[in-house]
Every structure is written in structure tokens, then in C-alpha cells.
């Protein structure tokens, strides 16, 4: 079963300094070098990215396993990604993807040859899941004004969860993003005894709260990674600026004067672990011109040095910041 989520993005499109009105006849075609990692046919078609979120591995930590911290992290990630326009794939039909990723982590990326159920897989590891209690004795006395006060004894309870979230591209099984997550949740209640009873059920509940909080802290990183995006198709130059045609149009939320960022992807191998990964670098910024259609846009780049770094197939993303303004973007992809 697949879940198609209509996104409600917290978006703040920034007005660019470059002029957004473009007469294409005034620009001459220019050659582009190919990107190191070219987009697939499915990516170029502008279809929603399919993402399956597997439970973070928590079996080696007894308390995390009993509290289902790994599954809680996965559910929290799904909740955030459901607002970015991706197509969430039910993890129950992901087949052997989890096993293949485990092998890739141990032996290096070897690719996935199973059914094409998703474009990305998100998993991770729980490295810490612990709880603690703290007793504070009752206190009484007089304040600076001479008023008498009395503070009851309290028991404080806390739970900490830490780990990482890993994003893999399918079918290459290359690690494209690692996000460290950590959070602590706590509560306090009055007590008449120095013994702070912290039942297992309450510990597990607080651990799950900490797990959700750890994901929420990485909301910007997760949602920006899957932000609406397209790919560079063409370049044209004038005397003082360049314009780039990209597969990012009004259907993905693009609008004239909106800012975008150009991103390059480079394959990398860790010399110590042998782990394959993909690193991303922002190479230029631009402004969406008035030459815009449902599935394309021409982007103005004023900085010639930055424009010369852009390659055919590079990714271009809408530049937005979470939490500044709330804007509903209706996707019709």
C-alpha cells in the first residue's frame, strides 16, 4: 500500500536581487559539462520521489527495543516527510531492502537488484536510550522580604535518546546523507518519599517522547533534503549574466522572483571504512525568471564565476526556511 501525501510546506521564498525579467532571444546557447552524478529518467520525469522509512536499528539496546524507539523514530520521520510532497511507501512491502543496506554497510555499496519500490530508503541506528531519576529534598525558609515559603520534595525523571538517521539512494544503495539526532525529555512530580518510583511503562513512554523530539530537532535538514527540486537542462549567456533552464516549474511550487540553490553531487568513499556515500555542495544561487511553465523555469544567475560551476544534470532546489512563514504549496505532480 502506498501513501500519497499532499504537502503543506513551511516555506519562505526569498526575493532575489537579480532581475527576473528575461528575453531569451538576447541570450546565446552555451555548452555545459555533465554532472558527476546524472539524474535518472524517473527523476527527470518530475515524478514524486518514493521514500520508504525503515525502523532505526535498536536491538542492541534492551531499553530501546522494549520501548520501540526505532519504530517511533521512523514514524516521526514519515510525519515530517509527508509534508514535502514525497510518496511514502509502506515499509511492509520494502522486501529485502533492510538486509541489503546492512550488507552494504558491512561490505560497501553493492547495489540493489530487487523490486523497484522506492527511490530512497531511510534507516538509522539508536546509539543511546537511557533513563534517570533525581530526588530533590523539601525546602523551606524565608525570602528577601521575610515571607515564609515551603517547597515540596520532588522526583525528576528523564529519558535520553541519541542516534543517527541515514538516507540511502536506491538502487545504488549509496549513503547520501547522515543526520545525527539526540534529545532528552523530562518531567517532575511532588513526592513524600525519597524513593522515586519510575515504572517501566513510564520510562518507555518518556523514551518515545525523546525519540520524537530528536527527529523534530532535525526537521529543517530532513525536509530541505527532500525539498521540491529539478535539474539543469540548458545554459544561455548574455554579456553580464547567464540563464539556466531547469525541470522545476509551477507544479513544484516555483514562482517568479523566487530564490533557488544549485547543488552538485559527488561520489565519495571513506578510506577507513570503505563506505560509499554521496556528498552535496551548493555551488550557486539564482532567481526564478518570468519565463516559467508548469514543468520548467529559466533561472537567472548574475555571478559569472558561480555560473561557470553549474553543470548539466545538477540539482536545483527551491530555497526555503522552515518556520518563518506558513505557505501551502499545491503540488499536482
Describe the structure.
By secondary structure, the protein is α+β, with helices and mostly antiparallel strands. Helices cover 19% and strands 37% of the residues. It has 7 helices and 15 strands. The strands form 3 sheets. A 6-stranded mixed sheet has the order 1-4-3-5-8-9, sandwiched between helices. The protein has a 6-stranded antiparallel β-barrel with strand order 10-11-14-13-12-15. Strands 6-7 form a two-stranded antiparallel sheet. Mean pLDDT is 84; it is low at 1-17 and 323-333.
Brief summary of the model shown:
Helix content is about 20%, strand content about 35%. By secondary structure, it is an alpha+beta fold.
Helix content: 10-25%
Number of strands: 15
Give me the side-by-side strand order of the main sheet. 1-4-3-5-8-9
Order of helices and strands: EEHEHHEHEEEEEHHEEEEEHE
Radius of gyration, rounded?
Answer: 25 Å
Query: Main sheet, how many strands, which sense, barrel?
Result: 6 strands, mixed
Q: Which shape, going by the Cα principal axes?
A: elongated
Q: Enumerate the spans where pLDDT stays under 50 for 5 or more consecutive residues.
A: 1-17, 323-333
- Terminal CA distance reads 19 Å
On the 0-100 scale, what is the average pLDDT?
Answer: 84
Q: Which percent band covers the strand fraction?
A: 35-45%
By DSSP (H or I, 4+ residues per run), the number of helices equals 7
The helix/strand class is: alpha+beta
Amino acid at each position: 500500500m502506498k501513501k500519497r501525501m499532499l504537502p503543506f510546506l513551511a516555506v519562505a521564498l526569498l526575493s532575489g536581487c537579480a532581475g527576473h525579467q528575461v528575453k531569451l532571444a538576447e541570450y546565446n546557447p552555451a555548452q555545459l559539462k555533465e554532472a558527476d552524478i546524472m539524474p535518472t529518467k524517473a527523476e527527470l520525469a518530475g515524478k514524486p520521489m518514493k521514500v520508504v522509512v525503515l525502523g532505526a536499528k535498536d536491538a542492541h539496546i534492551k531499553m530501546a527495543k522494549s520501548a520501540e524507539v526505532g519504530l517511533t523514530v521512523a514514524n516521526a520521520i514519515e510525519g515530517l516527510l509527508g509534508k514535502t510532497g514525497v510518496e511514502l511507501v509502506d515499509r511492509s512491502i520494502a522486501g529485502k531492502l533492510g538486509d541489503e543496506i546492512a550488507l552494504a554497510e558491512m561490505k560497501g555499496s553493492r547495489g540493489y537488484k530487487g523490486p523497484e519500490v522506492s527511490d530512497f530508503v531511510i534507516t538509522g541506528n539508536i546509539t543511546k536510550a537511557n533513563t534517570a531519576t533525581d530526588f530533590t529534598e523539601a525546602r523551606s525558609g524565608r525570602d528577601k522580604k521575610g515571607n515564609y515559603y515551603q517547597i515540596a520534595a520532588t522526583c525528576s525523571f528523564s529519558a535520553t535518546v541519541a542516534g543517527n538517521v541515514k538516507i540511502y539512494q536506491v538502487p545504488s544503495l549509496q549513503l547520501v546523507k547522515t543526520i545525527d539526532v539526540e534529545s532528552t525529555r523530562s518531567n517532575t512530580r511532588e513526592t513524600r518519599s525519597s524513593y522515586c518510583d519510575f515504572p517501566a511503562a513510564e520510562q518507555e513512554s518518556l523514551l518515545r517522547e525523546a525519540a520524537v523530539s530528536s527527529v523534530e530537532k532535525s526537521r529543517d535538514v530532513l525536509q530541505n533534503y527532500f525539498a521540491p527540486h529539478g535539474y539543469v537542462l540548458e545554459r544561455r549567456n548574455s554579456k553580464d549574466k547567464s540563464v539556466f533552464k531547469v525541470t522545476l516549474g509551477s507544479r513544484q511550487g516555483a514562482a517568479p522572483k523566487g530564490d533557488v540553490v544549485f547543488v552538485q553531487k559527488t561520489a565519495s568513499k571513506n578510506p577507513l571504512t570503505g563506505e560509499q556515500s554521496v556528498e552535496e555542495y551548493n555551488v550557486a544561487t539564482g532567481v526564478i525568471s518570468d519565463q516559467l511553465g508548469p514543468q520548467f523555469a529559466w533561472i537567472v544567475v548574475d555571478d559569472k564565476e558561480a555560473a561557470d560551476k553549474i553543470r548539466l544534470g545538477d540539482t536545483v532546489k527551491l530555497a526555503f526556511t522552515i518556520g518563518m512563514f506558513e505557505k501551502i504549496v499545491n503540488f499536482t505532480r
